[in-house]
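Hey, weird one. I pasted the Nucleoside diphosphate kinase sequence into the form twice and got a warning about non-standard characters only the second time. First submission, copied straight from the form history:
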Amino acid sequence: MGKELTYALITPYSLLKSRTGGIISRILSLSDLDLVGARMYTPGDEFLDEYCKTIEKQEIKPLWKKALIEYVNDKLRKSNKLGISNRTMFLLFEGDDAINVLQNKVIGPISDHLKGDTIRGTYGDCIKFDDGIVEYFEPAVLTSTDPTTNINQLDLFAKYALSDGGVLENVISFDKNEKPETSLVIFKPFEKQDPRPGNIVDMISRTGFFMVGIKLINMSVKQAEEIYKPVKDMFTDKFDEKFKPNLIEKLKTALNKQDVPFELNDDIMQKLVDQLKEPTVTGEFNKIVRYMTGHELSGFVDTEKAKEGKKTICFALLYQGINAISTIRELLGATDPKKADHSSIRRFYGEDILRNAVHASDSIENAERERKIIGLWKDEKTCDIKEIIERYTNSNVEYSKI
């Protein structure tokens, strides 16, 4: 089979019950597919009316077709029987035989099979009586079953990407005296089949905050420079404290090996270190940019001269809640994982100060600034999901459309 593009849609109930992290971990670690996009949706009635028509066309057992359509109508609409927000998380995957892999091997087929070897077996529920009546049905995740349905459903997610998807800060109800914050969290680069992003989502879910935005980003050098500019400023301001003592020792060691014809007194060393302040700060800053982007940089940061290295993938998520920014930063722990509390995210998943698993904005102002840089703000003219799907569906016109 050739490469296919397909999707997993995590249901509102799975989001509400904080099953999202476990589902993401399962898909990433078991599917051998490339995650190429992510977006939040609150599907409107027009979207869901068309979605139900695609289900009608599927070649599945009438019992499960009926159960799926009833589920969409009862549980996915803005006015639903559960009385909850109809936030859904849309994940886009690409790979060989992706439709079959995701549907049958990872998510699991629609059935009353309750064994936990698939996502639906673990996180879904179904009560079916002997007379063929489905009393209760929660699929946990929705996905397509065949190439034709897949194309038609992907077309809908592209068509309604801007009207029914994006940043969902206005869909959660809070008491009138409460002032919720939106925190930006960026999961630092992870590799294919790495379950850690899902595990971290699971830890953050314990705060009770609501996920209202998500985007997969291949961070550019320019974006990294802008996001981490305050860090470079901090390096400059605290150069004497953070870098100077160690740099002096390294210089002494290096110069002593050269048998220089003069005494390395304090005055000389201070002058040498002062001359090296700017390149030292830039070099340390470049390490961050290189790690976040996968681009090789030489000398001073120069966007034009950056060479593409190993591809990196980062998750950007928005969490909304009361005191969300300070609470999430406390949950992350100290910048140095070795100094972080044992119950913190960085203690579990960080490696060192550079590779410390997660970045989180430290203020409302910085959250807004960083969101605008990575394109996870409120105003959109297009989005990556729409563009990726349209490229794929335009190249697969052989499948009939509804």
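That's the output from the first submission. The warning seems to come from a hidden character in my clipboard, not from the data itself. The radius of gyration is 25 Å.
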